[in-house]
Specification:
The protein is an all-beta fold. It has one domain (about 5-110, about 120-150): Jelly Rolls (Sandwich). The protein contains one helix and twelve strands; from the N terminus they run E-E-E-E-E-E-E-E-E-H-E-E-E. A six-stranded antiparallel β-sheet has the order 1-12-4-10-7-8, with no helix packed on it. Strands 2, 3, 5, 6, 9 and 11 form a six-stranded antiparallel β-sheet that branches. Strand 5 and strand 6 (about 65) form a beta hairpin.
Length: about 160
């Protein structure tokens, strides 16, 4: 049974994340039924930023890459249909990840759903890695919406 109140988890504060790898706040999936990751993208001027998801036994440990499905908003922020998301698209573990392009992802919202029961055994910590090898602008922020295992208005933390 899901709680009536979802848990909002700050995962990445708004900033320009160009020219390097950045790990978002790790989340302990053992404390949640599922997590919806909501990435808000601003300006993107390059075509090389990549998202990958990892599981680990401890906070910030990225030992096992995991596959995921994502959806992208139908229009730029503030426009009609920006809240209408397309079909789920699968990204396999070991593949190139979700590669962002300015033409497709600039000023859009991406959601990624992760189910706790699909995490590898003994690796409850989820870390989202974003890597932009270019010196191009990559404005973004991220929150997670978790469905806690324990009910109540005040939740047990799922971050370290």
């Amino acid at each position: 049974m899901y709680t009536a109140e979802p848990q909002i988890i700050p995962m990445l504060e708004p900033a320009d994340y160009q020219a390097g790898a950045t790990d978002m706040q790790s989340v302990h999936m053992g404390k949640l039924h599922k997590l919806k990751i909501v990435v808000m993208l601003g300006a993107i001027t390059g075509d090389s930023a990549v998202f990958k998801l990892y599981a680990g036994a401890t906070n910030t440990t990225k030992t096992t890459e995991i596959g995921f499905k994502y959806r992208i908003g139908g229009a730029d922020y503030g426009a009609a249909s920006s809240d209408v998301f397309g079909a789920r698209t699968a990204v396999a573990a070991g593949a190139s990840g979700l590669v962002l392009t300015a033409a497709t992802h600039d000023h859009k919202t991406i959601t990624i759903d992760v189910m706790a029961d699909e995490m590898p055994d003994g690796k409850p910590w989820l870390t989202v890695e974003t890597d932009d090898g270019s010196a191009s602008v990559l404005l973004m922020s991220c929150v997670g919406i978790g469905w806690p295992r324990e009910s109540g208005d005040t939740h047990t933390t799922a971050v370290a």
